[in-house]
């Protein structure tokens, strides 16, 4: 088990490239959902993402790179860009994670290969785009660093458990509330092979 974290994701999202991706990822249902054309959506998003001036101590500043912190559009454009990043980065590898689950800028990974190859994997994804850099924390003492505020670890009674106030009380981390499950599933991305995805969904 490995945890990957993207350094300062929102402020490092390449705005021009991300807007270009947005104009290409629409499907055939777009006309049923909005009268806007892909080019119009591109132009509106580009305008919003570049309207990043702010005032501090009576001085006005313009953010020159990335999406603005606190903007409701920032997580949307960041997720769209990262889906594209993950697809292209992982497709060019011969050794891939068996599971890659990202929630915004935190990614939980199951790596079935050796640690040396894990280092090569980190170097590969950090060289894939000049703006996107990952840090990595590996499993220690059968547990991995936090992912979405939980601490997954191995336990004989459950595939993954998390620590609680009582260290002798393991709690299964799988959520069962339908709204919670669908929210986390839709906000995560899984550009890995179909087998681990289907296995995870059957567990849910």
UniProtKB/TrEMBL annotation:
Ranges annotated as spanning the membrane? none
InterPro entries from the entry? Answer: DNA/RNA_pol_sf, RT_dom
Q: Where is the composition biased (Polar residues)?
A: 139-152
Annotated Pfam families:
RVT_1 (PF00078)
Superkingdom assignment: Eukaryota
The segment annotated Disordered runs over 139-173, 185-204
The protein here is known as Reverse transcriptase domain-containing protein
Where is each Reverse transcriptase domain found? Answer: 1-164
Where are the coiled-coil regions? none
